[in-house]
Amino acid sequence: MKTIASNLSVYSVMHAVIDMMTIAVLFSVLKNQIGSIAELINLVILYNVIAFGLQAIIGYATDYLKSPRAILLSGCVLIAISVIEFSYLPVAAVILAGLGNALFHVGAGSISLNLTPKKASAPGIFVSTGAIGVLVGTILGKSGQFVAWPFVLTILILCFSVLIIKKPEMNYNKEEIKSSKVGYFQIILILILLSIAIRSLVGVAIIFPWKTNIDLLIALTLAVVLGKGLGGLLADKFGWLQVAVGALVLSIPFLVFGANSPFIAIVGMFLFNITMPVTLVVISNILPGRPGFAFGLTCLALMLGVLPVYFGLGQFLSRELSIFIIILISSVALFYGLRTYFTKYLKKTA
After folding, report:
1. Which CATH architecture has domain 2-164?
2. pLDDT digits (tens, 9 = 90+) for 43-83
3. To the nearest 10°, the Cα dihedral for 260, 214, 219, 196?
4. Is the fold of 2-164 the same as that of 179-349?
5. Whole-prediction pTM value?
6. What is the pLDDT of residues 150-167, one digit of tens each?
7. Architecture in CATH of 179-349
8. Secondary structure in 3-state letters for 217-278
9. Residue boundaries of the structural domains of the chain
């Protein structure tokens, strides 16, 4: 338990700090960069493609090397460099920030998946803190008040903490997928990744007009943090299918009809994010011994999910009917994915 607590504490704090630094670099560059709107949008897309799109590849390499700590520490080094140079080489800084972010998430995410093996509790707590970092980084970057050295010092202290805490046991025992369960594996993989991608799409498509109020924005962020952090704990205690699918379905009326009401929408976002740890761990469980690749696949799905917005469909997708349909599709995909996992895949495995 002491190993779980120490690792989870360090990596969860690091997650918040890393996301804060990389987002602060991105928004600092966007604030200072002189260029057309199209060029600035392309810079954001470039960051997201690197930060999220490369994680599956990095995860595969991490599993092959069996060195998640080295991978995440190398990511921290790249981020520290990007923080120092964003005023001098802005585009290079964004690239390094994105790559460093991807390396950190895969390395630390792999470890979180092994802290409570096959359970959603630890991964849920680990992923939850990123929302705090994104909020603080956005505020610092947009304000022009981001100063490099205090954060470089902070990340160095956290890296030292990583080196002195006891390493958790990592499972890299890969299992071949038996022919009798190949079909179920593919169904689960497709449905769960589809559910993740659609949830990601909702996250960027839905419009909350009250988000300009900083107090309400903080409350919304805390709802996301609590949803992810408690989601794994609740799902492990009361059942993945009941908690994850139930919360996602319950979020529909809150998000579809309550987007203009801060309290209702915040409750909706809390429910909406409860599913996140479960989907991550299901993918990891059907890919035993490949925690980095599993974590990377889910992040790739997050990136693919937002592509329709990048291609100009945001206004259409932000309508109430569109939000209703896409959350419903995500709920159905999650339900059948989890049901197949419990009633077909696990029985075949046994």
Report:
1. Up-down Bundle (1.20)
2. 888 999 999 999 999 999 999 999 999 999 999 999 999 98
3. 70
4. yes
5. 0.93
6. 888 999 999 999 999 988
7. Up-down Bundle (1.20)
8. HHHHHHHHHHHHHHHHHHHHHHCHHHHHHHHHHHHHHHHHHCCCCHHHHHHHHHHHHCCHHH
9. 2-164, 179-349
